[in-house]
Amino acid sequence: MSDDEQGQMADEWAAALGEQADAEGEAAAEDDWAAALGEQAEAEAAADEVAADDVMPAELEELSDESSPINADERRKLDTILDIPVSISMEVGRSNINIRNLLQLNQGSVVELDRVAGEPLDVLVNGTLIAHGEVVVVNDKFGIRLTDVISQTERIKKLK
Question: Phi first, then psi: what are they for 121, rounded to 5°?
């Protein structure tokens, strides 16, 4: 995401928060919340400008397959489980609100989540946390870059 796009996005968020406060007559505490979000967006945009200048490509090792080849029976078993569909989802954050507030939500409403801006998203497969990642845009489509994959032993511990 370019610096101009980030700046524009920060301006759009600030404008949206300002419009919501005007439309709903928000209390002074929520105006402070909007101002804090605007300041945070500006600080992040400035930090991204500095970080973009320092980016250098990393050298990666060539991957090699050191495992022994599998036999036909093992291949059949593997093919069986590889075709099982799973549901993958990305969780930005959560919030608990009562039904009264839920029914008052409309276009432009802002719901505060339990995560800090810039914190990694959770990647869930069939409701089980398997990784953390960050949002990326590729060819005008959103995606996720995995930054931390939960180890197999940790995933098994969470199942119990």
Answer: -80, 155
